[in-house]
Amino acid sequence: MSTHTPAQAHTHFAEAASERRDFAAIARWVAPGAKVLDLGCGDGALLGYLRDTLNVRGYGVERADANVLACVKNGVNVIQMDLEAGLSGFEAQSFDVVILSQTLQAMHNTEGIVMDMLRVGKEVVVTFPNFGYWRHRIQLITGNMPVSRNLPYQWYDTPNVHLCTISDFDNFCRDHNIRVTERLVLTDGKPVSLLPNILGSLAMYRLGNNT
User: Fold this and answer.
1) pTM exceeding 0.85
2) Does domain 6-209 have CATH number 3.40.50.150?
């Protein structure tokens, strides 16, 4: 099986980071050399970016055959498994950071995976498209399901099953005694502080346990 050279993989990760502006923001929440678990890692672009910029160690978790193959070609350590089955194979506090980047909305067992992440990781990073973003609201008012950069699918082919707003996730964290260490809301890669649940398109959370 052929793999990309390190230079090719590095170029791929840099290009992916330019398209996914949340990568740099996530990197600010990860310490150099940290042990990282990236859930729903796709082709491994985020983990590869963190490895190249911060020398992190760790694994990606992915279900799709094509994405697992892409991780291997890109030199990213990957474990093939279904996140819906939970993280029972990982020991408690075995990773410095566990990341779920723009995958939360595609999970059926949303509550279970977030709580499992908090068990496995010393810190948790969760990012998701904000369904309360004003452009989404307008599309709903006009009678259509929202389609945007962060929600690129049509209603009939979307993998998303549990869309939520920033307010929804804030309430979820409060109700489950989850400590929000930091919250960052972005639109077009720029931070949003005013009316984030309306003006923000992407929500990013750094989480920890209160216990």
Assistant:
1) yes
2) yes
